[in-house]
Amino acid sequence: MSTPSYSRSLASAVKRLKLSPSIATLTSQQSRQLQHSTRLAAQPISPNLERELSEIRLPKAVQATYLAPLKRQPTTPRKANEPIETVCQLQLRSYNVRNLEVFSDFALRAAYFLQLPATSYNLPRRTERWTVPRSNFVHKKSQENFERITMRREIVIKEGNPETVSVWLAFLRKYQYYGVGLKANVFEYGSLKAAEEMDAEAKRVEELLGSIELEKPAKGMGQLGLPEKMVDQAFKASWGAYAPSSGAQSVPDGNKRVATVSVEGGLMPEKQEKKTKGEEKEGAA
Which residues form the Small ribosomal subunit protein uS10 domain (predicted)? Predict the structure, then answer.
């Protein structure tokens, strides 16, 4: 049973005291009146200076960012009901609307400067949901839901040169914005008389070459069995046949731990001299 408080000693009572230095509390003054700034800070601009600043024109590259991207129209004359050929369909996908808008705007501006007629469409969103267990121990009976929304936008190029379209796609691939995926469908149109067109192209190339004779490579110039080597080497390298200790019988150094390299002349110069001297002694004997 603990002793009562009145029977405790003075020393034990002093030990329980919390001594801290006295700190003067700073009182914060609050005012409900408006704080007016100085006269120099709130000095108004003269009308002439304000007019001059408003007349300064921004650079075209900066001014274009505040405007909608320009678009070109197809220029090939067509009949009334004749459809326009679609050359490329580029689909942009992202989980962030800001990234999608920035890169689609960038793609439309690049198509305008490459003289490609482009139009953009908003595709419906794709919503995916998953329900998984929360944990495998205490919370194994409770479930957790996850949701992912994919925003999509499509840019269609019509009546464009295939080479220009490939340059446009390569440019977008080089400066691709983070968090935006690209999927392109490229269409090429040709006539049904492909054989005749190839013959005409061959004649044109022959006329351009003139009397220049092209030498055909002989079979002995490293081309014997070349297709088989191209196929076999790629197949063997895919599963590591050319690595040390691979066990492949048809691969050099397949049964060795370290790949060896043959040196021209065989041994080192010093060992080569000793070997020749030994052979000379054996021949003299």
Answer: 89-185
pLDDT digits (tens, 9 = 90+) for 123-152: 999 999 999 888 777 777 788 899 999 999
For 54-74, write each residue's pLDDT tens digit: 888 888 878 888 888 888 888
Mean pLDDT across 212-227: 61
Q: Please state the domain count of the chain.
A: 2
Q: Using CA atoms, how far apart are residues 19 and 160, in angstroms rounded to an integer?
A: 86
For the stretch 262-275, pLDDT in tens is: 555 444 555 556 66
In a domain, 29, yes or no: no
Q: Is residue 116 part of a domain?
A: yes
Residue 267: the pLDDT is: 46
Domain co-membership, 94 together with 176 = yes
- CATH of residue 120: 3.30.70.600
Domain range holding 252? 233-263
Answer yes or no: do 174 and 246 share one domain: no
